[in-house]
Amino acid sequence: MGEFFDARLVCEYFPQLLSRLPITLLLVAAATVIGLAVGTVLALFRLYKIPVFNQVAIFYISFMRGTPILVQMFVIYYGLPAVLMTIGININRWDRLIFVILTYGLNLGAFLAEIIRAAVAGVPVGQTEAAYSVGMTRMQTFFRIVAPQALLAAMPSMGINIVGLLQDSSIAFALGIIDVMGKARSIGASTYHTLEAYVGAAIIFLVISLLLEKGCSIIEKRLSMKIIGDRG
C-alpha cells in the first residue's frame, strides 16, 4: 500500500493544509452573518406579505435554491461589477474572496429565509395574543416571545445548512481562492500524492463539522433552558 497511500505524507501535508484554514473559516463565518441578515429580511417580507417585496423575495429564493452555487458565483463575480459600472461604481479591484463570501452569503440567505419563516409561523398565535394583552408592543413581542422560540425551532436546520456551507466552500477554488481544499489540490498537482492531501483535508473538515454541530447543539440547549426559565 506504500506506493498507493503513504500515511506519513498526510502528517507532512497537515501544516500546509492548516495554514489555509483561516481562509475557510473566514468564508464560512462571514457568509453565515450575511446569510442570517438576508434570510431574516426575506422571511419578514414573506411573513408580512409586503407588496412587491414579497414577490421579489419569492423569486429570489426560488432562483438561489434552484440554481447551482457555482453558477451563482460566476454570475456575481462577472455580472455584479458590470452592473455597478453602469452607475459609476468600480469594484473590479475587489479581492476575489469578497465575491465568494457574497455568493455564499446570498445563497445561504435563501435557504435560511424559508427556515426562519417556517419557524416564526410555527409559534402559536395564542402566545402572541397573550403578549399583546399584557401590554407588550409588536417589537417587544417579537424579540421576547416569538424570536427565541423560532430560533430554537430553526437551530437544527440552520446548523445543517451552515455545516453544508463549510463543505461547499471547496468550490471557491474555481475563482482561485486557496483555502483548505484549494491547498489540497495544489499539493496533489505538485507532488502527485493527491490522495494523501485529500485525506488530510477530509480530517480537517470532519473535525470542524463536528465542532460546528456541537456548537449548534449547545446553543439549542441554552435557548431551550432560557425559554423554560422564562415560562417558569
Tell me the name of the CATH homologous superfamily. Answer: MetI-like
Measured by DSSP, the beta-strand proportion falls in: under 5%
User: What is the N-to-C order of secondary-structure elements (H for helix, E for strand)?
Assistant: HHHHHHHHH
Kindly report the oligomeric state of this protein: single chain
Question: Which stretches are poorly predicted, pLDDT < 50 over at least 5 residues?
Answer: none
Helix content: over 70%
CATH fold group = MetI-like fold
The DSSP helix count reads: 9
Can you tell me the overall shape? Answer: flat
CATH C-level label: Mainly Alpha
**CATH architecture grouping:** Orthogonal Bundle
The Cα radius of gyration reads: 21 Å
Describe this structure in words.
The protein has 232 residues and is an all-alpha fold. It is 80% helix and 0% strand. α2 runs antiparallel to α3 (53-66), α2 packs across α5 (96-121) and α6 (125-133) packs antiparallel against α7.
Attribute tags:
9 helices, mainly alpha, flat, 232 residues, MetI-like fold
Explain briefly what this protein structure is:
The chain is built from nine helices and no strands. It is an all-alpha fold and 232 residues long. The chain is flat.
Layout of helices and strands, plus pairs?
Elements: H1 7-18, H2 21-47, H3 53-66, H4 69-85, H5 96-121, H6 125-133, H7 138-168, H8 180-191, H9 194-231
Helix pairs in contact: 1-8, 1-9, 2-3, 2-5, 3-5, 4-5, 5-7, 6-7, 7-9, 8-9
